[in-house]
Amino acid sequence: MLDRDELNTAAMKIYERVAEPALEALKKANITASEVDQIELIGGGVRIPKVLEMLEAALERKDLSVHLNGDEAMCFGSAFIASNSSSSFKVKSILLTQHPEYDVQLRISPTNATDSISEEDQKAEGLEEADIIKYNQDLRLFDHTKDYMGKSKGLSMNYNKDMTL
What we know:
Elements: H1 4-10, H2 12-15, H3 20-29, E1 39-40, H4 49-59, E2 64-65, H5 70-84, E3 104-110, H6 119-124, E4 137-142, E5 163-164
Parallel strand pairs: 1-2
Antiparallel strand pairs: 3-4, 3-5
């Protein structure tokens, strides 16, 4: 059994990180907490008094709101985003339009470096252009300037060697 003080002491390293996402969001939006009219907290952490205390201190506010069922809000949001990625569900599209901060890239190469055969060598062996395998590739899956979160992409790969992605 733990009492609240023992729990707070044991979890202090985690509590110290609680406000970081909120402060980072304010920084990216180039605003301060005092410029925000209302803050609604969601998620299970709002049931922990120390989490509320840490957020109130970091945001210099005493009016943090908990009007929504935080667990339900998270679940509904996740369900809508997932349904947008599926052709099995018929719902109105609700899209996240936040662009990823960085490009998402994929590097493909043979697990064993000696398995790589250059495109020139494959052509020399008489392979048709359509049958040539690109053993070493760098692909940009998502471009941070064009793509948005929640977007999905498909990638088809056909290799005859063990590959590392």
